[in-house]
Amino acid sequence: MKTNLLICVTALLASFTSVAQVAMHAPSVQSANVSAPSAAPQAPKPVLRVNGAVLTNRDLLREMMNVFPYAKEHGGKFPQDSEAQIRKMALRNLEFEELAYQQAQRLGMTVTPAKLDKAVGDFQAQFESPAQFQQYLKVEQQGSVQVLRGKIRRAILIEQYLNVQINNKSKLTDAQLRDFYQKNPDRFRKPDSVWLQTITIAYGDNPTPADKKKAWERADEALKQAKATKDYEGFGMLAEKVSMDDWRVMMGDHKWLHRGRMPEQVEAVVFKMQAGQISGVIDTGDSFCIARVNGREDSHLVAFDEVKPQLKKNLEQQKADELRGALEAQLRKNAKIEEL
Length: 340
Fold this sequence. Notes:
CATH topology of the largest domain: Triger factor/SurA peptide-binding fold
Mean pLDDT: 88
Distance between the termini: 53 Å
Strand content: 5-15%
Structural class: alpha+beta
Number of domains: 2
Radius of gyration: 29 Å
CATH class of the largest domain: Mainly Alpha
CATH superfamily of the largest domain: Porin chaperone SurA, peptide-binding domain
Order of helices and strands: HEEHHHHHHEEHHEHEEEHE
Strand order of the largest sheet: 5-4-7-6
Low-confidence stretches: 1-24, 27-39
Number of helices: 11
Largest sheet: 4 strands, antiparallel
Oligomer: single chain
C-alpha cells in the first residue's frame, strides 16, 4: 500500500521542457477564431506594460486559459465567482514570463534555427488543415508566419532561461533524497492500519427507546447472518442488502483505514481483531456497526524505494517553487510594471 507523504506543495509551477509547454508562452490554437473565416480580425488591446513592452488582451486570455484550462470545455467562459482571481494570477504570470524573456535577451541567449523550425512545425501540426492554419495566422498573427516565429522564439527563450534558473537547479540526486528520508523518518511512517468492511444499522442522533430497540434487533439479526458468511464476498453481499450507509454500494468495503479515521468505538474493537474476524454489534452513538477485518498492518517505516518517486517529485517541486519565488522577486526589484 502506498504511503501518503506529509509533504504539502500547494503552489503549481509550470514545467517548460516540451514543445507543448513552450506553446504556453506562444500563441495558442484555442485562441484562433477558426470557425468564422469571414470575420474581420479584431485589433488586440493593451492590458499590461513591462519595462516598456506591451502585452495584450490576447496574451491575457491565453494565460487565463493556462491558469483555468477547464474554461475550454465551457466555451471559453470562466466561473463568475473566480474570474477576477484567475485574471489576477494570469497577469502575474504574464509579468513574470515577460521579465524572464527580457532577462534572457540581456544575457544574450539564442535559439538555433533548427530548434525554432521544429517548434514552429510542431505548433502548425496542431491544426486540422493548412487552411485552418492560414486562418489562424490571419486572425491572430497579422497574417504573418514571421510574427508567429517571433512569438515562438520568445517562448523558447523563456523556456531556456527558466531551465537554467529553476528546472536544472531543482533536480535532486538519490543521495540527497535518501538523506532527507533518513533525517525525517516520521514523515514516512505508516500508522497502524486495518482493512475494513462494515454493515451499518442507523438509528439517528435522538432516537426514541423504541426506535433504538428496533435498530438493535435489526443489527442483531444482521450479525447472525454476518457470522454465517464465509468470506469477503459473502459479507459484502450481505452489506449490499442490509447496510444503511453509502458504503453498501461498495460491499461495505472501506479499504485501508488508519487510527483516527473511524469512530473511536469501532477503532477500539477492530485493532484487537485478526484478519477474517467479524466483530459483535458496536454502538457508535448514532448507529450500530458490524465490522469485518480483512487485513492488519502494524505501524512501520515505509521503505525508501517505495517512497522515492513521490518524494523526488514533491521535493523537486518544492525547490522549484522556492527558486521561482526568489527569481521573480529579483526580476521585479527594479522593473517598471503597469496595468493598462
